[in-house]
Amino acid sequence: MQITVKNRILIFVIMMVVVPLLAESIYSPGLPALAESFGVSDGLAESTLSIYLFGMSIGVLCWGNLSDLIGRKPVVLIGCGMFLISSIVCYWTTTFSWFMFWRFFQAFGGSVSCVAQSVNRDVFDQRERMALSAKIGTAVSIAPAVGAMVGGFITENFGWRQSFLFLIVVACAISTLFLVALPETKKGPFLRQDSGSFLAAIWRVVSDVNLLFNSTIIGLGLGILYTFMSEGAFYCIEALSMSSEGYGMICAAGSLVYALGCSITSQLIKRGIRYQQVMLFGVAMMCFGFALFDLVIYSGLLTRPITGAVSDLSAFWVLALLWVFSSLGLSFTLTPCFANALEHQRENAGVAASMFAFAYNLISTLVLLVMSSLHAEHLYAMPTYFFAVTLLIWIACEILFRSQRATVDHAESAVPSIEIA
User: Fold this and answer.
1) Given 86, 257, 380, 385, which residue has the most CB atoms within 10 angstroms?
2) What is the largest CA-CA distance in the chain?
3) How far apart are CA 298 and CA 379, in angstroms?
4) Residues 194-408, CATH architecture
């Protein structure tokens, strides 16, 4: 009976995590159509993803703390209700400003997925959580791929608004399921938090160099991923005349390869390769991929007419291969960061996890906003920007590794030497 309950809760946890990611990626193939529908610029249409990421950033600071105060189930139901109502308004509204407003609250409600970590701690022991993390990680990696493919199909055949109708149906289903079947997993007394200890915990987080630079690397890397899911829609559909389904397939391929890269990274580290080497190799792959991307554009391969062949099919395969290769490098770089970011935050892991998620979501939002403001008709703008962000990732990696070496050297120098007479 206990195994059945735990399996049921695992399914609920995966649902909590996956649905906000679907909302993040499912309508990306429809961004050009959204811009045309609302009569706004491409840059403003891209900002609908930025506002979503910002809502996620703010939300993760609230829900985890609130679940300690009033319980997991009430918080999950409140978040799901907010997500559902916001999705309904986004589907019906014809005003862009209202769409943006409710898109923020859709993300704020969806960020209740951060409570999944607390539910895991409530129900599963440490060994079980280690095993479950692989399943959850796989679901997290595949969800954007599914979202992009489903969104591409819906946009191509029914229009971009129907993506939100799909989310409404999904939100209704899981909200009903959580209401009926999700148990309250928090046992014992609810938290009555002391403001002094809370501020002290926050200070320990913001002064942790390891956490700050890992979150910076993750934020920059995810910024590249999210930018391709927004700017890439205009790039592929408008500039290269691809179909929404074709663009969705490229996004899906990148997400699936990213998931594969996470598994490869884990195996490489288990075989004794230092994670710093894996990260730098990933950065090198990204630099090479984006530099090659620029070279392909300057050579005219994506735009040169091809006699006796389908030029848009050629562009599809060239872009798909470049993005898949770069996504693999991105997974090599980011996977160790997620594993090591909270290394020094064992005593206040809850607050640290919220601040960590807030930091990398905020940085990725800024990366996306900069690209939106630089939105240009030139094909080389996006890969050049990706290359520049990758250089920032390399700089952050070098600073992180040097701080780690300095910490090790300081610890070794603090150990008293033993002289042999």
Assistant:
1) 86
2) 86
3) 9
4) Up-down Bundle (1.20)
Q: Is the dihedral of CA 194, 198, 199, 201 positive or negative?
A: positive
Q: Above 70 in pLDDT, residue 135?
A: no
At residue 347, does pLDDT exceed 70?
no
Question: 1-182 in CATH: which number?
Answer: 1.20.1250.20
Distance CA 139, CA 256 (A): 10
CB neighbours of residue 32 within 10 Å:
19
Q: Name the burial class of residue 130, with classes exposed (0-12), middle (13-18) and buried (19+) by CB atoms within 10 angstroms of its CB.
A: exposed
The residue type at 286: M
- Where exactly are the structural domains of the chain? 1-182, 194-408
Answer yes or no: same fold for 1-182 and 194-408. Answer: yes
Whether the pLDDT of residue 111 is over 70: the answer is yes
Inform me whether the pLDDT recorded for 86 exceeds 90. yes
The pLDDT tens digits for 3-46 are 567 777 778 888 888 888 888 888 788 888 888 889 988 878 88
Integer Cα distance of 64 and 365 in angstroms: 21
- Tracing tokens 């055949």 back to the chain, one arrives at 157
The CA distances from residue 53 to 150, 219, 357, 364, in Å, are: 20, 11, 11, 8
pTM of the model: 0.79
d(C-alpha 27, C-alpha 153), whole Å: 10
Q: Once rounded to an integer, what is the mean pLDDT over residues 50-70?
A: 81
Placement of tokens 């946009």 in the chain: 155
Among 231, 122, 133, CA closest to 185: 122
Match 């700089």 to its residue by tokens.
395
